[in-house]
Write a structure and sequence with these properties.
alpha+beta; Nucleoside Triphosphate Pyrophosphohydrolase; 2 domains; 4-stranded mixed sheet; 3-stranded antiparallel sheet; 20% helix
Length: 183
Amino acid sequence: MPNHWPVVESVVERDFRIFTLRRDRAVSPRTGAAHDFYVLETRDWVNVIPITPEGDVVMVHQFRHGVRQVTLEIPGGIVDHEAEDPADAAARELLEETGYRAAEILHLGTVQAQPALQNNYCHTYLALGALEVAAPTPDPGEDLRVEKFPLADVPRRIRAGEIAHGLVLAAFYWYELWRREKG
């Protein structure tokens, strides 16, 4: 098993609005050589799988600048501050992005968002009994379109490449584990 790499220097190179770029100089325990590694420090994220009483899933289409495409995703976003409970962030993001509120929000699981480059985690929640209560109120940098369809269509849409966001796929895996355990 690989050993921990001792960090001999850690410097914040740049501070951006939603993340900082940190440079760590760490020593390989195998070779003794020092190497620079860059880490994006950011707050944790949440993803929400909203299920309506009729068994539909509520998702959003939005343009993603990294891939320069419109993607089909579940609602989600950043945990606003360290003291915010991720479950509260999940409820907030669900309402903001879709206009839906859930009767019950359950934590399904947590993954490392991208451990090679980032220091944060993504928490996945299941929002049961999701009902539309308001119009969506996306952030100024978001342009969303809400789509509701049968939850049973999700596997087909994944296979077809319509749902391709890695953290959304992880969320649906957490959902499948929960569904199987529930019986």
